[in-house]
Amino acid sequence: MNTSDDMQIFLTYGDIALASSLILVVLMVSWRLRLHLTKTLLMAALRTVVQLSFIGLILAWVFAREQWYEVLSILTIMTLIAGSAAKNRVKRRYNGLFIDTLLAVSVSAVLVTAIAIMVILDVQPWYTPQFVIPILGLILGNSLTAISLTSNQLINAFYEQQARIEMMLSLSATPFEAVHEQVRTAIINGMTPTLNSMLVVGVVSLPGMMTGQILAGADPTQAIRYQIVTMFLICVSSTLGCTISALLTYRRFFNKNQQFSLP
């Protein structure tokens, strides 16, 4: 660990190695309690180091060049991976699930990121990698979690409440009226982690983005302002993502004759 005159701390590879040794505590807990998570923990730790190191090299290269097509390529890859990750977290799958999750993730995250970059922060040019890549990554990570929670909740509800939905349809309800309660519950379920985070931020928890900025030597007041903006961006993106996902998903469970049909 090295320090400069203004008390900014620079991490060395030795510091990272020391921090990684703490994983041994987690492995010991897993072994003693027979959690059978040893392989998963080791793989997660290894992937964390490899993936972040790799993306660090790429970002350093992209930041130095600042070419719009390179930035756009990275944003596209990030969005595709987020859509795939959201799909993989859904236990009961159906044909077209990847398209639905990708649309929900991309529309919500890209739209909110565009507003943040072009309107709120007024970044010039818009493809400045220092801003657009971290913001989109932050929003994508939270959106895919919210979308996968919504999809899981809604699909499970369709399977468990098939009789109720069909009864509603038999009473002349439209497809959306028949599944409105399930859609509403699924969206609320997807939004819950974001809302819970907003309720305790600054009181119980200090978000990673703000903590990272402060540790890097940024002005705490500016770090807090950035965190407030990002929390609102995440909230809007998660809401849009959950809503789009729910609306796209429920349509997959009705045929052309407006009949409820499980995949």
Structure explained in plain terms:
With 263 residues, this protein is mainly α. It has two domains: 1-65; 68-252, no CATH class. Helices cover 76% and strands 2% of the residues. It has ten helices and two strands, in the order ββαααααααααα. Strands 1-2 form a two-stranded antiparallel sheet. A hairpin with a 5-residue loop joins β1 and β2 (9-10). α4 (68-88) packs across α5 (97-120), α5 (97-120) runs antiparallel to α6 and α6 packs parallel to α10. The radius of gyration is 22 Å and the shape is globular. The mean pLDDT is 88.
Briefly characterize the structure.
This protein is mostly helical and 263 residues long.
What keyword list fits this structure?
mainly alpha; 10 helices; 263 residues; two-stranded antiparallel ribbon; 2 domains; 2% strand
Q: What is Rg?
A: 22 Å
Question: What separation lies between the terminal Cα atoms?
Answer: 56 Å
Give the helices and strands as they follow along the chain. Answer: EEHHHHHHHHHH
Total beta-strand segments:
2
Assembly type: single chain
Alpha-beta content class: mainly alpha
Beta fraction: under 5%
* Tally of helical runs: 10
Mean pLDDT: 88
| Helix share bin | over 70%
Q: Give unreliable regions as ranges.
A: none
Biggest sheet, strands in spatial order? 1-2
Tell me the major beta sheet.
2 strands, antiparallel
- From the spread of the alpha carbons, the general shape counts as globular
How many structurally independent domains? 2
Pfam families: UPF0014 (PF03649)
Transmembrane segments: 12-29, 41-62, 98-121, 133-159, 194-216, 228-250
Membrane topology: Multi-pass membrane protein
Main location: membrane
